[in-house]
Amino acid sequence: MTRQPHTNLLPACRRQRLALLVLLSLHAMVALTMVLSQVRPPQIDVAEAGIPELTKVSEFFASLVYWQYLPGWALLAGLSVVAWGHLRYAHSRGVSPDRRERVARRYRRALVVVLLSLPALKVQSVLDLVVWPGAHTLAFLVCLPTTVYALWLVHCMQRFRRVPVPLLLTALGWGAVVAAGFGLTMNEWWKSFSTLHFPLPDNILDATRLKDIGLPMISGFFEELGKGAGVAILFLLYRRHFHSVVSGIVIGAATGLGFNFVESVTYMAAFDGSSAGFHFWARQVAGLMAAHTAFTAITGAAFGIARQLHSRPQQITTIALGFCTAAGAHFCNNAMLDYVAKESHKWFTAGDTVNVLLLTPAQLLLFQGPLIVLYVLLLRRGLRSEAAGLRVSLTNLPDAARDAITEAEAAVLLSPARRFRLKADALRAAASLRHGIAAYLRLARLHAAQLELATEHWHRLRGEADPSARDEASSRARVQALKAVLAGNGP
């Protein structure tokens, strides 16, 4: 009798294991900061300062930074032990491997949910919801239309094969929930760590300057690390959709938009919305496609470029350079904006209206403009590369694919304007609006399937085909089925 192999709690797919490792690395970073906070002796002698109660108060607030992580990790450990024991028991009882795999898959999902929920709990504190629920709700509703509009603009950056909308929304959600929570955790750690472990200046009221010195660097690095981890996980799990630098920019920008949305709501709702107008203008209007959107777009572009490289060292170097560029630009932006805000009143006097409408956009253009120019140039270059690659792919299609994409259809696929005009004509020619929308969507699905077939053939010609992508036969069959539906001969 052949012994059945044990079912592993970890996923069998290598990419899924690497994605889980990336997620665990964020928690390892939080654990490392906890250790640093505990092992480094305080350098502040509070008793000599005449404030003996400050020690207890500061230690209490410092512990609040991580309160949800410790029980969460205990839950993870307990759930892992239960899962391991359950799988061992099922194996000893002779349960079929398929059933054991289904059980293991449920445990994996539960563990991933816990790992994602821990940083998510930092996004909105209970105190904020209790004290300013109206301000948070109003800020959420005000920022939602501009964020949706920006996400639509990001989606429209793609002129040929497009990233699926669910994947785009996943990137947005990661930036808004996981990356924002991780960044807030790290920022709060630095604020408590710097004031507790650095010597106080002669004036105790200047203690806040200690955390302000390093906060731009800390926030720039860890916030980009949290967003970049999301892009890395999506790259590992859905690599077939990272077909060029364009898709990398789109996914990175969507992740940054999610982070910017939560940050805008937080700042607008602070102090019962006293400065909501300024933050809405700076973050949701003037800086909507800049700041976090631009920073993470550069990180995503690096993943898109790495997708088309064959050497593993080159891929790692490209991704590292993209992250360092984003984190360095984020740090410089934070530091310079803080400096200008503190020193500009010494240079000239300007009214509030001039400061908001002229000086704030000028500062954003000066400190964030180079990143915007960089990702726009990368996007332009990527679109040209896609157009050239698709032209080569459509010219060298195998004979079996000629029925799926004819020469006339190939010319339409290479022109976004002609594709849109064709869909608009179908919308206008329909007998009713409902039938017109249905015809428009059917044509859009057909074009998307044909572009996917052509793009995957382009990757095969370049020797960079992804194993998880559809094979050419199934892609052709999908196109033929959509053509049959469009012609009225299909279901």
TrEMBL record:
Transmembrane segments: 18-36, 66-89, 110-132, 138-155, 167-186, 213-238, 245-262, 282-306, 318-336, 356-378
Keywords: Membrane, Transmembrane, Transmembrane helix
Protein's organism: Nonomuraea monospora
Protein known as: PrsW family intramembrane metalloprotease
Species lineage: Bacteria, Bacillati, Actinomycetota, Actinomycetes, Streptosporangiales
